[in-house]
């Protein structure tokens, strides 16, 4: 039986009337091959809308064994039901009788199956744009993995492994951020490469939640021809400061009973009446042209629970009422059922909006500034505009209308900033509206960009005085093994214990990033030979195909004369034994 032969249990009149005959014929064809001629005719009539067929099965005798009912799944294959008295339709799939059964079937079991049959659920394709859920380097991190009360880090939790001291320090900072007790501070996460500096920052962003602003910035992003360095840093700072604005609005909320629309024959203005109710009262409202257009745009119909903002006229469709849940035999997967509201129709609600200072800057910087939020073309914003916004936000704060939320600005590879940027950050941290700045650096003694001075971590000494430093240590072999196992699980790859041990050894001798990268390439090689899991041979082949930095440096040193040097000179001398990379 092909997937197109699925038996649709809905009445033919509720689908497409023009296809009713074809559907009934299809039902008969499917049932005839499964249940026999007489039973097929009866079932086709009964499931076509006439339920009187149940009475005709009274008095039939026979036995139905537990293995006699089979579910034909939509994706192919079948599944035996352990209880023959269970639902006739299992997850929208068709329950078929075993062809080996005799035609007479016990009436009570058949009647129970029909009575208990659940309506078929349709899954419509969503036309909404979906986000890119790609597997990134830190997509497995869900938080800092610390205890909420004691802030004590757990060994392996929320995707983070090891680095207990650094995670606890980050948790303390995070707690102070949530309580609003700290702002205008700078924290430096310093450590060797592949020790989890960015992972800790990602864990902090996940733990903060969506209400607290968190901005990630790479140092090289501020060097642009379209915008000055100080403007880029200013925008990053103001993106990391949130404003929680509270306002009260009058809302009409209830279940739509009836919508009447009177359209003029001459094409004049439309008029209409909206009947809306709660569990306690019912009211009729007159609607104008704009409200009718909004209702049509939102596809509001009787039975919908809606919310109307009286100040702006915005209509929000909350869902369908539970009382109307049986109006249709089939509904879309996105249909949501809600309870009919109680009490008064008109209520006052406090609505909270959380925006960043940068968004307010962009909207007020030009006549149609809100469009720049979507295009990203914000350009330079004048300091006068920002001063006016700061004054207005301060007034809102005094009146209790707004609340300042200091967020977090994370600057990765901070040693790539130059001396002018560090000077600006020094001043910005002392401002009244300043976020917490968290930086990461993998440098030891390094030269400060724009100067000839050498300083620890590539940061000026006067800037280091204002910084709290958190250090990360190299991972142990057991921690590397746990991290690689988490990465394999995130990428849905089965790795054998021997292969995982070899990957751990590679991560120790080379680096963790390289070992994590060849998990994917090893998986591709295992798929070529149709294996269910990555074996040690797949890892060895990937190791031979793709060089790690250590072997690449060794290769360059061995054949240095064949590479173009600093002076643009390359030695094209004759090779020996026909090897293009062997120097005679």
UniProtKB/TrEMBL annotation:
Its main location: nucleus. SMART domains: AAA. It is found in: Nucleus. Keywords: Activator, ATP-binding, Chromatin regulator, DNA damage, DNA repair, Helicase, Hydrolase, Nucleotide-binding, Nucleus, rRNA processing, Transcription, Transcription regulation. Its EC number is 3.6.4.12. One of its GO terms (biological process) is DNA repair. Pfam families: TIP49 (PF06068), TIP49_C (PF17856). InterPro entries: AAA+_ATPase (IPR003593), P-loop_NTPase (IPR027417), RuvB-like (IPR027238), RuvB-like_C (IPR041048), RuvBL1/2_DNA/RNA_bd_dom (IPR042487), TIP49_P-loop (IPR010339). GO terms for molecular function: ATP binding; ATP hydrolysis activity; DNA helicase activity. One of its GO terms (cellular component) is Ino80 complex. Residues 183-474 form the AAA+ ATPase domain. It catalyses: ATP + H2O = ADP + phosphate + H(+). DNA helicase participates in several chromatin remodeling complexes, including the SWR1 and the INO80 complexes. May form heterododecamers with RVB1. Component of the SWR1 chromatin remodeling complex, the INO80 chromatin remodeling complex, and of the R2TP complex. PANTHER family: RUVB-RELATED REPTIN AND PONTIN. Belongs to the RuvB family. This is RuvB-like helicase. It comes from Penicillium brasilianum. The gene is rvb2.
